[in-house]
Specification:
This protein has three helices and no strands. The protein has helices at residues 21-31, 42-59, 69-82.
């Protein structure tokens, strides 16, 4: 999935995901806190999308762990002390 960012609203992802997704989201909203109805085709899609995400992660140049912790800590401390 080649997106410019990762939106918090899944409805903005409809163009990138299976065609049945809008119906499933609507059904889940109607059920509110209950379980959404089962979608038999979803198993194959979950496997496909999981593989796609794993491949994207493997190809990523991002480090496995954050590397800016100390610099961020220093920035926060300096900002607080400047007040």
């Amino acid at each position: 999935m080649k997106l410019p960012g990762w939106p918090a609203d899944v409805t903005r992802l409809y163009a990138y995901l299976p065609a049945y997704l809008p119906d499933r989201v609507a059904a889940k909203r109607e059920a509110e806190h209950g379980a959404a109805p089962a979608v038999p085709a979803a198993e194959a899609d979950v496997a496909r999308l999981t593989a796609e995400l794993e491949n994207a992660g493997a190809a990523s140049r991002l480090p496995e762990a954050a590397t800016a912790h100390d610099a961020l800590h220093d920035l926060v401390v300096r900002t607080r002390l400047a007040r």
